[in-house]
Design a protein that fits this description.
Blueprint (H helix, E strand, L loop, with lengths): L3 H8 L3 H29 L10 E6 L7 E2 L2 H6 L4 E9 L3 E2 L10 E5 L4 H4 L7 H9 L3 E5 H7 L6 E5 L6 E9 L7 E5 H8 L3 E2 L1 E6 L4 H12 L7 E5 H7 L7 H29 L2 H9 L4 H36 L14 H28 L2 H6 L3
Parallel strand pairs: 5-9, 6-8
Antiparallel strand pairs: 1-11, 1-12, 2-10, 3-5, 3-11, 4-7, 6-9, 7-8
Helix pairs in contact: 1-12, 2-10, 2-12, 2-13, 10-13, 12-13
Length: 381
């Protein structure tokens, strides 16, 4: 710390090069931080208390293969099951799919069971009563309503793809910290239109977290020898399965992180090597004044780490801004409404920045610190 003033002055002695180096590291750390934030959001985010109690039962083969509606009563009889609700994907098109703001999930459900399975949804009693009493009614997330300017009583016309066209009336809005970009309407209404006795998924609410693994095993064991077997998994695992449609997301993110780190090393290493070569004579002067090789090495490394950390902080601030933008965008294959730079991601990213600073400068700094005084003073830079 006693050399901090000297380190600070030397860090920005060549302002143009230092600023360009900081910006290069910042852009790289921005991408690295964003990728790590996505990775953390996908694979390390703990489910909420309500999410931890929910399971999804679907056809073992794929979501395209439905399950008989009769399975619902059998699932409800499994010990530990508190409630089972139909969750039938509708899909279709609202206005124009080329505009991403028109993309939001639409599900047919049993309205009287909605708040039993999703108690975190906040709906006023008056609006919930209106939703229950009208077969063409729907309840939508507040975020969708704000995006489109929907009001109670507005009608939504959906053009079906595998199902016929339907028209819904907005009778309620719901608020939720997560999963607040979905429209729910009456399962009975869809059955009237389609005359179907099959369903894509069932949502199961367990009585306690301890019951969740037992329910998953029990449901799948019940239908193991039937023509239509089930795959029952937690709500979080079900959501992650959609990422599999994009390929090996884990490998993709890790490959990007590795490439970004390697790029930072190249940029930073070249810059630090140039900086040290220009200061070989100064190193000789410092040795003449009594500075030990270890102290000189520490000063040079500290300068490199300092530049890397400044770039890292700026880059992570930029990454946090990108996270805020992504949170406002419509959901794609995962709920990113809570995406942010979490403390573990922040610590790892800054650690990478510090390591890059040390590694990129270690060899040239080590060589400069070991040079004999006479040879260093003769250097021309």
């Amino acid at each position: 710390m006693k050399y901090i003033s000297l380190i600070w002055k030397n860090t920005f002695r060549n302002k143009r090069r230092s600023i360009l180096t900081v910006l290069s590291i910042a852009l790289s750390l921005c991408l690295l931080g964003l990728m790590m934030a996505l990775y953390h959001s996908f694979y390390f985010t703990e489910p909420t208390a309500d999410e931890a109690l929910r399971l999804i039962a679907r056809n073992r083969v794929s979501l395209a293969n439905p399950l008989p509606l009769a399975y619902q009563q059998k699932i409800a009889a499994v010990p530990g099951v508190q409630e089972v609700i139909v969750l039938q994907w509708y899909g279709g098109t609202y206005k124009d799919n080329r505009d991403t703001k028109n993309m939001f999930a639409r599900f047919a459900v049993e309205p009287e069971k909605l708040l039993k399975v999703y108690p975190e949804f906040e709906i006023s009693d008056e609006e919930m009563k209106a939703f229950l009493s009208e077969r063409t009614a729907c309840v939508i997330g507040r975020k969708i309503a704000n995006r489109h300017g929907f009001k109670l009583g507005d009608r939504i016309a959906l053009t079906g793809d595998i199902f016929p066209d339907i028209e819904l009336t907005i009778r309620a809005f719901y608020d939720s910290k997560i999963n607040n970009e979905t429209a729910f309407f009456h399962w009975a209404y869809l059955r009237e239109v389609v005359k179907m006795d099959v369903v894509s998924t069932f949502v199961i609410r367990a009585a306690s977290p301890e019951d969740v693994p037992r329910i998953a095993r029990g449901v799948d064991a019940m239908f193991r020898n039937s023509p239509l077997q089930t795959k029952t998994e937690t709500e979080q695992a079900f959501a992650l399965s959609f990422l599999g449609f994009l390929g090996d997301v884990k490998l993709f993110i890790m490959a990007i992180c590795g490439a970004v780190t390697f790029t930072i090393l190249l940029v930073s290493g070249n810059t630090m090597a140039m900086s040290v070569r220009e200061r070989v004579r100064e190193v000789g002067v410092l040795k003449t004044l009594g500075y030990a090789p270890g102290a000189i090495l520490g000063i040079l490394l500290a300068e490199s780490v300092f530049i890397s950390l400044i770039g890292g902080v700026i880059g992570l601030a930029m990454a946090q801004g990108l996270c805020l933008l992504i949170r406002q965008a419509p959901p794609f294959v995962a709920d990113l409404s809570q995406l942010s730079i979490q403390p573990p991601v922040l610590a790892i990213s800054l650690g990478v920045a510090a390591i890059v600073g040390v590694v990129s400068c270690s060899l040239p700094a080590w060589g400069a610190a070991r040079r004999p005084i006479v040879e260093a003073l003769r250097a021309t830079g």
